[in-house]
From TrEMBL:
Residues 4-115 form the Bacterial bifunctional deaminase-reductase C-terminal domain. Coiled coil: none annotated. Pfam families: RibD_C. The lineage of its organism: Bacteria, Bacillati, Chloroflexota, Ktedonobacteria, Ktedonobacterales. This is Bacterial bifunctional deaminase-reductase C-terminal domain-containing protein. Gene3D superfamilies: Dihydrofolate Reductase, subunit A.
């Protein structure tokens, strides 16, 4: 059974929230963070996200040209939303209904872990 792995970017001072999240750049100069995050993304088969995260990510990931972005853009993405009408980001599937049941089904499939 696959695991769900959560990748969370936080700051010790609590500054990394709100509008700062949209910038998606201040942390890219940290080589250790980029290396470890890329290793994590490469070890996962798919990404699980909600609508709000999808809407933030689609503004940035499709236009980036680094190895991390290459992996995220290529991997299957499952967006859990009852309101998102369409998903224009490649390899994205909108999931409606019983999220728990769908995630359970994904976990039981063959493959590597699932990234949140």
């Amino acid at each position: 059974m696959r695991n769900i792995i959560e990748n969370v970017l936080v700051s010790l001072d609590g500054v990394y929230d709100g509008a700062a999240i949209v910038r998606f750049g201040d942390y890219r100069d940290d080589e250790a963070y980029m290396r470890d995050s890329l290793d994590q993304a490469l070890s996962c088969s798919a990404m699980l996200i909600g609508r709000a995260t999808y809407e933030l990510f689609i503004m940035n990931w499709p236009i980036r040209t680094d190895p991390w972005a290459d992996r995220i853009n290529a991997m299957p993405k499952y967006v859990f939303s009852s309101t998102l009408e369409k998903a224009d980001w490649n390899n994205t599937t909108i999931i409606r209904g019983d999220v728990g049941a769908y995630v359970t089904k994904l976990k039981q499939q063959e493959g590597h872990d699932l990234l949140v």
